[in-house]
Write a structure and sequence with these properties.
There is one protein chain. By secondary structure, the protein is mostly helical. The protein contains 10 helices and no strands. α9 runs antiparallel to α10. It is globular, with a radius of gyration of 18 Å.
Length: 208
């Protein structure tokens, strides 16, 4: 027995109000990254972001409580749990994880590859951004383990599922840090696969 596969065409499309929210959120993010590229993270203020995005500072803070949130928030965090729920029930865990992670990563790269590079660089260079990234990773990890619980029948608050979900998220976060620390020279997809290999098979053999 397999679960029904959902596609973007199958999912409900957002209404006018939600589309306006998405457009405003995207404008704020675009303004933020443009300003950071021009003058650096620390020099960029909420007031400047608001002026560039043509909204009020209060609107910026309504969508993003802090400047770090603008940097670390993307549109693809819900993709992993949603994709996981759509995979066949008899598909091996390793294949499920690779599909789910690759889908989210490919969407992000297709839409905004330069933003992804900038975000990962800021996550290495700016302590406040790095700390918020870890918080967001924990939040996405909770969403992931809820989806995993539905699939496996395990307790979403049980230790085993918590460890598994956060191992996945922590591995992905470290892959992104490594990518930025090495100047984005390697293919992030390859690095992500290496991280998933460690989770699946353990550490490679070291020197005798």
């Amino acid at each position: 027995m397999t679960a029904a596969r959902t596609t973007s065409a199958d999912r409900p499309q957002p209404g006018l109000r939600e589309r306006k929210k998405i457009k405003t959120r995207q404008a704020i993010r675009a303004a933020t990254f443009a300003l950071i590229e021009e003058q650096g993270y620390d020099a960029t203020t909420v007031e400047q972001i608001a002026a560039r995005a043509e909204v009020s500072p209060s609107t910026v803070l309504r969508y993003f409580p802090a400047k770090e949130d603008i940097v670390v928030t993307d549109e693809w965090a819900p993709v992993m749990p949603a994709e996981l729920r759509g995979r066949p029930e008899d598909e091996p865990w390793a294949a499920v994880l690779r599909h789910v992670v690759h889908t989210a990563l490919d969407l992000s790269l297709a839409e905004e590859p330069e933003v992804l590079r900038l975000r990962t660089r800021l996550g290495v260079e700016v302590p406040a951004v790095r700390a918020r990234m870890m918080e967001r990773t924990a939040t996405t990890g909770r969403l992931l383990r809820e989806a995993l619980a539905e699939r496996s029948g395990l307790d979403p608050d049980g230790l085993e599922l918590r460890v598994f979900a956060m191992s996945v998220m922590g591995g992905l976060l470290e892959a992104s840090h490594y990518w930025a620390e090495t100047g984005h020279r390697e293919d992030i997809r390859v690095l992500v696969d290496r991280a998933l290999d460690v989770l699946e098979h353990g550490l490679p053999a070291g020197k005798p």
